[in-house]
Amino acid sequence: MAKGSHEKQRVLILSNHPVLGEGIQHLLKEEPAIEVVGMEAIAPECIDRVAFLRPDVVILAGGVKSPQLSQLTSHLLERFANLPLICVDLERDTVQIYHSRQVPARSRDLKEALRDLKGLSSFTSFQSGETGY
Q1: Where along the chain do its domains lie?
Q2: Closest by alpha carbon to 13, among 38, 30, 32, 42?
Q3: How far is 13 from 61, CA to CA, in rounded Å?
Q4: Sheet holding 9-15: strands in order across?
């Protein structure tokens, strides 16, 4: 279901660092196009909360070294394939975005995906200072 221009993005925050989760929640509450539908500690029951709340986006906030966080990320990607996940890594000071889209398999889509990967590879090589493809 596509979001209309008047609908808010429903965001669920899952965090193993309460202060980080609260900070993200405070930051997002200032955005008129975003509705924070909940903030939960990272725990096994988070999967059920995602299924119940049906957010448009899940933000996972904490450290990637946390086995709980990486396990939860894997479970969410498996169970909710079309749900965008944004992982905020406090330890590395990075953000990772996971978003997949399932489409019918057509040769045109496969070729386009392969072209995109080559372009990404070239960009990565350029960023790292390499000049070859």
Answers
A1: 9-98, 103-133
A2: 38
A3: 7
A4: 34-41, 9-15, 57-62, 85-89, 94-98
For the stretch 31-68, pLDDT in tens is: 999 999 999 998 888 899 999 999 999 999 886 566 77
CATH topology of domain 9-98: Rossmann fold (3.40.50)
What is the 8-class DSSP label of residue 130?
-
Query: d(Cα 60, Cα 89) in Å, to the nearest integer?
Result: 8
Q: Which helix (H) or strand (E) holds 104?
A: none
Q: Which residue has the tokens 């990486």?
A: 70
Q: How far apart are CA 118 and CA 27, in angstroms?
A: 36
Token pair 């990637």 is found at 64
The CA distance from 126 to 124, in Å, is: 5
Amino acid sitting at position 17: H
This prediction's pTM: 0.71
Note the pLDDT tens digit of each residue in 75-132: 898 899 889 999 888 777 788 888 776 656 666 666 676 666 655 444 443 344 444 4
